[in-house]
Design a protein that fits this description.
By secondary structure, the protein is an alpha/beta fold. The chain contains 15 helices and 14 strands. 39% of the residues lie in helices and 20% in strands.
Length: 402
C-alpha cells in the first residue's frame, strides 16, 4: 500500500511517500519539503530514494492546494517520480496537531472528523488550520482517496485526571476544557515501542521515560505502553526550556512583566513563545549547536543557559521516575536528544543515584542512530532512538485503510 504522509504547516508542507507491505515492513520511496507558501517565490524540494537526483522547483505557490498539486506532479513525473500514476497511491495520512478530548486514536477522515478538527482551532491556532487545509486540499485534488488524521495529542489521552488537571476553578475545565493535552505524541509513541524492542522489554509491562529534545522539547512518562504524564501542557509552551519558549514559569512573573511593560495578551504570547527560551537566556541563538560553541568558549550566559536547559531535562526524568515508582528505560530522541552527547552525559551523570551507568565511548560516538548507551550493570537502561513520526502516521493510515 503506497501512502502519502503530509505534515502541513502555516507556510510549508513536509511529505514522505512510504510503501507499506505490512505493519512492520515498509520502504521509503520519496520525501520532500514545500516552503514559502504564499510568498512571491515558493520552493519545492523533492528527494526520490531510488537513486534519482533530487528535484527542485521555484515559483509561486499561493496556497496548500497548489503545493500539494506540485507534490503529486513530482511523485508521478517520468524524470523524478516514484509512482507511475495516481492509481498507485492508496491513501493519505496527515499530522494534525490537536484533537482535543475527541480523539484518543487516529481517525479516518469524514465530515464529523473535519468538524472536530475545526473546533480545535482555538486550541492550536497556528497548526490546526494548516493541517485541515492539507486535508481539504487532498479532498479537492483526489476526492476518492481515503485520508487518515493522526493527532499529536491522541497518545496523551491515556493520562489520568490527576496528571492532566490544573488546580484552577473547575468551571474553566467544564466550559473551555482547560487541561494538559501534551504534544509530540507520535514521536513518544514510536520511540517508546522501538526502544522497548531494542532493550528487550515488554512494552505492556514497562516503565519508560522518553525525552524528545529539539528546538521544541517534551518528556513523557510511558507506563505499560501508555502515556502517563508529559511535560507540555494546555499548549506546547509548558515544561522544558526550549529554543524560543520559556517552558514552566511562575504565572505571577508573567502578570508582573505584562503590567510593568504594558503588554497585551498577544504581546505576552509572543514574548513567551518567540522571544524566550535558550535564545533569550544566552543572547546567542535558539540552536544548541551555537550555544555549545559559546559554552566551550567560556561565555558566561551560555554556561548558565545550557546548564539550565540540561537540568530541566534531568529534573523531569527524575520526577517521572518518582511518579511511576521506578523506571526501566530512558530514551533520548529529537534533534538535540539524538545528536548531543553532552546533554545525554549531563542527564546520566545526574541520575547516577538511580543506578544509571553509561558507556562514554558509545555515547560520544552516537549521533542520530539507534543505540543502547547504558552499560550492562546499569540498573536503568538508556537508549538513543531516531524518531520517525512519518512512519507512525503511515502505519496508522495503513491499519485504518487496508
Amino acid at each position: 500500500m503506497v501512502i502519502l504522509v503530509l505534515n502541513c504547516g502555516s507556510s510549508s508542507i513536509k511529505y514522505q511517500v512510504i510503501d507499506m507491505t505490512s505493519e512492520t515492513q515498509n520502504t521509503l520511496l520519496a520525501k520532500g519539503l514545500v516552503e514559502r507558501i504564499g510568498l512571491p517565490e515558493g520552493v519545492l524540494t523533492h528527494k526520490p530514494q531510488n537513486g534519482t537526483a533530487p528535484f527542485e522547483y521555484k515559483g509561486a505557490i499561493p496556497d496548500h492546494t497548489e503545493g500539494i498539486r506540485l507534490i503529486i506532479e513530482a511523485l508521478t513525473s517520468k524524470e523524478h517520480g516514484v509512482i507511475s500514476s495516481l492509481d498507485e497511491l492508496n491513501a493519505v495520512g496527515h499530522r494534525v496537531a490537536h484533537g482535543g478530548e475527541y480523539f484518543s486514536e487516529s481517525a479516518l477522515v469524514n465530515d464529523d472528523v473535519i468538524a472536530k478538527i475545526r473546533s480545535c482551532f482555538e486550541l492550536a491556532p497556528l497548526h490546526n488550520p494548516a493541517n485541515l487545509e492539507g486535508i481539504l486540499s487532498i479532498a479537492r485534488l483526489l476526492p476518492t482517496i481515503p485520508q487518515v488524521a493522526v493527532f499529536d495529542t491522541s497518545f496523551h489521552q491515556s493520562i489520568p485526571a490527576e496528571n492532566y488537571m490544573y488546580a484552577l476553578p473547575y468551571e474553566y475545565y467544564e466550559k473551555y476544557r482547560v487541561r494538559k493535552y501534551g504534544f509530540h505524541g507520535t514521536s513518544h509513541k514510536f520511540v517508546a515501542r522501538r526502544g522497548a524492542e531494542l532493550a528487550g522489554l515488554d512494552i505492556n509491562n514497562s516503565k519508560i521515560i522518553t525525552c524528545h529534545i529539539g528546538n521544541g522539547g517534551s518528556i513523557t512518562a510511558v507506563l505499560n505502553g501508555k502515556s502517563f504524564d508529559t511535560s507540555m501542557g494546555f499548549t506546547p509552551l509548558d515544561g522544558l526550556v526550549m529554543g524560543t519558549r520559556c517552558g514552566a514559569v511562575d504565572a505571577g512573573a508573567v502578570l508582573f512583566i505584562g503590567e510593568k511593560e504594558g503588554l497585551d495578551y498577544a504581546q505576552l504570547n509572543s514574548v513567551l513563545n518567540k522571544k524566550s527560551g535558550i535564545e533569550a537566556l544566552t543572547g546567542i541563538s535558539s540552536d544548541m549547536r551555537d550555544v555549545d560553541a559559546a559554552f566551550n568558549a567560556g561565555n558566561p550566559r551560555a554556561i548558565v543557559g545550557r546548564n539550565l536547559y540540561y537540568s530541566k531535562v534531568a529534573g523531569f526524568v527524575g520526577s517521572y521516575a518518582v511518579e511511576m515508582n521506578g523506571v526501566d528505560l530512558i530514551i533520548f530522541t529529537g534533534g538535540v536528544g539524538e545528536n548531543s552527547s553532552n546533554l545525554r552525559e549531563y542527564v546520566c551523570d545526574h541520575l547516577e543515584f538511580m543506578g544509571v551507568k553509561y558507556d562514554a565511548a558509545i555515547n560520544n560516538a552516537t549521533h542520530g542512530d539507534d543505540a543502547m548507551i547504558s552499560t550492562a550493570e546499569s540498573k536503568v537502561k538508556v537508549a538513543v532512538i531516531a524518531t520517525n513520526e512519518e512512519l507512525v502516521i503511515a502505519t496508522d493510515t495503513f491499519n485504518l485503510t487496508k
